[in-house]
Each structure stands twice: as structure tokens, then as C-alpha cells.
Amino acid sequence: MRNPYDVLGVAKNASSKEIKSAYRKLAKQYHPDQKPDDPKAKERFAEIGQAYEILGDEKQRGAFDRGEIDAEGKPRFAGFEGAGAGGDPFAGFRRSGRGGPGAQHFEFRSGGPDGAGFSGADIFSQIFGDAFSQGGSAGHAGQGRRTAGGARRPTGMGDLNATLDVDIEDVAKAAKVTAIFPGGRRIAVKLPRYVEDGQTIRLKGQGEETPFGERGDALVKLRFRTHPRYRVEGRDLHVDLPVSLRDAVLGAKVPVETPTGRLALTVPAWTSSGKAMRLKGQGLPRKTEGNGDLYAHVQIMLPEGGDPALEALFRQSA
């Protein structure tokens, strides 16, 4: 690709306003809709947009002016000048001549018994380490993340990680919670409708700055906090329901706490302790649709301190 200053027709010392004005003028002029009969209009329009992606961003423009990235926004590395546009990225590493006084010889070998030379992956690994060679080398789709300028951010570079304990009520309500990252940074997280214990949520662009002009991501691992009331089984919840002996014998409406509020549950007469009563749809959200259920387990409670009248009744019937 041509020098972005030449593409937009502006001087190297042009102001941001001048660059923006030139871009708008050219983009309007060469928009494919304006030139439906020009087969090169689409290519020219894309070239204009690429140039503005570099010059319209202060960091990208500075990196280009310093020679850190090329006209396509890709990083430049020592020894790789001339790569692209038919250039040989390894030209600086080959033999430059044979024989004759003063001739220089450059020949890199891997050191292995077969004498094989370094591969491009070897050299990138030397510069960036395994993180780049495994996740960021250009030319491998899906490895790393491509920035607006075309360069790839190596996978994991600039990412932040945090573990967040969440309450069952927050999970049930898809509430907004706050994750705290190393260094004390806080990020508000809106929980999705469906989350699982141990699930990691990715917040794109919320990580640290990287040399590739793109921020990393913030990764939040969720853990369900142990609850004093609810027991979680899949998407169902289980809770103990205290019921007095009188209500268990005669029947009554008993309040039940659910993650989204209090409900009244009808306890039939002569309900035994340990009976599980189902409240449909009062559990955690399912992945597809609807919610799990809440099961209230009846626990018959005798009066604290005793009840003389109740004791006399049982003695009389014995």
C-alpha cells in the first residue's frame, strides 16, 4: 500500500483537522455508490479508509512516523524492512556476496544436525516469545486479534484477569456487579441472563494498552458464592422451610424467600416434615428459556421453650 500521506494528499506535518477534511472529501468522491461504473473505485475507497485508520489516530500516526508500523498498520521489525509489496523479509539475513575482499557473508543456521536455517516462526519467537509465535503471527486466521490497521494483537497480550464471587440473587436477577482487577481497577459487569459457576466473561477492549494499537480484554471468572439459605443443583434451588407443628397439622400459607422476592406457599394440612414442595420457575435461568425450580423442604419446628397446652394434649391422648 502507498504512503498514507500520499493517499490522502496531505503533508506530513498536516493537522488532524486537515487530515480529517481530506479523508471526508476523498471518501465522498470515491465512494462506490458515487462511481458505479468505475471498477477501481472500491479499491481506491478502501485505500483511503486504510490511510485514515492510521493518520486519523494519534497513536497509529505516531507509530507510522517513527517507522514502527508500515502503511498497512503492521509492525515493522529490525531486519524486516522491505518486506511486503514483493520484498524479501529475510533479505537482510542472506549472504550478500561470495569471494572478493571485503565481501560479507551472513548465513544463519539453526544449529541442528541437518543445518536447517531459521524459519520465520523462529525469529518471531525470538522477538516476542511463545505468546507471539503461538497466537499472533500474521497469516494464521483465528490466532490473535486483528486491529483496525491490520496488525494482529497476540492472543492474551494486554488481557486482565479477575475472579468474582457472585450471590445467587445476582445470578437470578442478571444483576450488575463489580469486578476488582490487580492494581485496584474496578469494572462494572452486567451479568448475562444465563451464567454458570466457573464461567469466564470476556469484556472486549477493557484490558491494558498494547503496542498493536488495540487494548486487551478483561476476563472475569465467576464463582457462585456459598449461600446460607439456598443449595444449588443445576438450575434448581433447594431451601429449608420452617413450619410450626400447628401449621403442619391444620395447614396454612407460609412465606418463602426466593432469589427474586418473597412468596406465599400453601402448606396442606397434615404435611410431614421433609416433604419437598415445588415452586415452578423460581430457580436460576436456564440456557434456552425459562427458569429452574425452587424446592422448599418442610421442616416442622416445635415451639421454643415448650408449650404446656400442647404437652397436656398429647398426655391426655396417650
TrEMBL record:
It comes from the Bacteria. The keyword Nuclease does not apply. Residues 3-68 form the J domain. Pfam families: DnaJ, DnaJ_C. It comes from Nitratireductor aquibiodomus RA22. SMART domains: DnaJ. GO terms for molecular function: unfolded protein binding. The keyword Chaperone applies. This is Molecular chaperone DnaJ. Residues 135-159 are annotated as: Disordered. GO terms for cellular component: cytoplasm. GO terms for biological process: protein refolding. Keywords: Chaperone. Residues 144-158 have a biased composition (Low complexity). InterPro entries: DnaJ_C, DnaJ_domain, DnaJ_domain_CS, HSP40/DnaJ_pept-bd, J_dom_sf. Signal peptide: none annotated.
